[in-house]
Design brief:
By secondary structure, this protein is of the alpha+beta class. 32% of the residues lie in helices and 29% in strands. The two termini are 17 Å apart.
């Protein structure tokens, strides 16, 4: 990638989380059930917080962003959200709509600054990275000259981890023993050329969204929800209403929206949750098409 300016990169960079989401999709299992198996198999630690809450992926993403854009490591500025709230219903609905849920680390350079974010993400099922399953990892890098390129390999387990550690040690020794006068500078951050590119707060990031809510099954409810979204400038791409299950009067409403700033979506969700006809919290999962542009 030395001859490219990196536009964005997106990665499945935690094997444990990817294993859990794959099992939930393929076998219809619950999060807690699969997490216990991941621990038994040695994929997840006894305390799985770093894996399932996105902290491990956020560490990796800050390094990737530094390499891609030449910025300092900024873990504290990385928006981090885990997968423990993902339900098998959301996984199933996403599949029904042509998407798969992946725990994605994404960094993108924009005119306003750099996006640094880790969160569950709906990706079109046709994308190669959406078909990276189990403990495998993949990083999709989009350069201005080469376009999108995908790097794929194991992301958990004793030997893959050891391989990565040895590779890092070899890189360190090469830097120490190379003649700096004749070495081509790497793309990453260097202390003598501090970058002043800001990291965007999540409120200023624009994405599309998957929304799911429990609503009373009576006339006018859907109109109230769509009015709130419309007032916030949010357009709907797709809408599905699931009939109440036996013995319930609550219908599930699932929506896909077009891209909108996070702060506008936050305001709209707060107004929807304030409706007397909406029960509980609105489930929100961000969406990315990962097109070349």
């Amino acid at each position: 990638m030395a001859g490219n300016q990196i536009k964005w990169l997106a990665g499945i960079i935690n094997g444990t989380g990817n294993f859990i989401l794959t099992e939930m999709r393929d076998k219809g299992r619950d999060f807690d059930d699969v997490l216990q198996e991941a621990q038994a198999l040695g994929y997840a630690e006894a305390d799985p917080t770093f894996d399932v809450e996105g902290i491990d992926a956020a560490h990796k993403l800050t390094i990737l962003a530094s390499i891609a854009f030449g910025i300092p490591l900024q873990f504290e500025a990385t928006y981090t959200e885990g997968i423990s709230h993902i339900t098998r219903e959301d996984v199933s609905y996403a599949e029904e709509l042509g998407y798969r849920i992946k725990h994605l680390g994404l960094t993108r350079r924009t005119e306003k600054g750099v996006e640094l974010r880790v969160h569950p993400t709906l990706i079109p099922a046709r994308r190669l990275i959406a078909n990276v399953d189990g403990v495998m990892n993949a990083i999709l890098v989009n350069g201005d000259a080469v376009g999108p390129t995908l790097y794929y390999g194991a992301g958990a387990g004793a030997e893959p981890t050891a391989s990565a550690v040895v590779a890092d040690l070899v890189d360190v020794v090469r830097v120490l023993t190379s003649d700096p006068e004749n070495r081509v500078p790497h793309l990453a951050f260097q202390a003598n050329r501090l970058s002043d590119i800001p990291v965007l707060p999540m409120d200023e990031v624009a994405t599309a969204y998957y929304l799911r809510m429990q609503a009373e099954d009576r006339p006018g409810v859907l109109a109230d929800v769509t009015r709130i979204l419309g007032d916030a400038g949010i357009s709907i791409e797709a809408l599905v209403q699931k009939e109440p299950s036996a013995g319930s009067d609550k219908a599930s409403i699932i929506m896909l929206t077009h891209r909108v700033l996070e702060k506008h979506m936050n305001r709209a969700i707060a107004n929807i949750e304030a409706l007397a006809t909406i029960h509980g919290s609105v489930t929100r999962i961000r969406m990315e098409t990962l097109d070349a542009d």
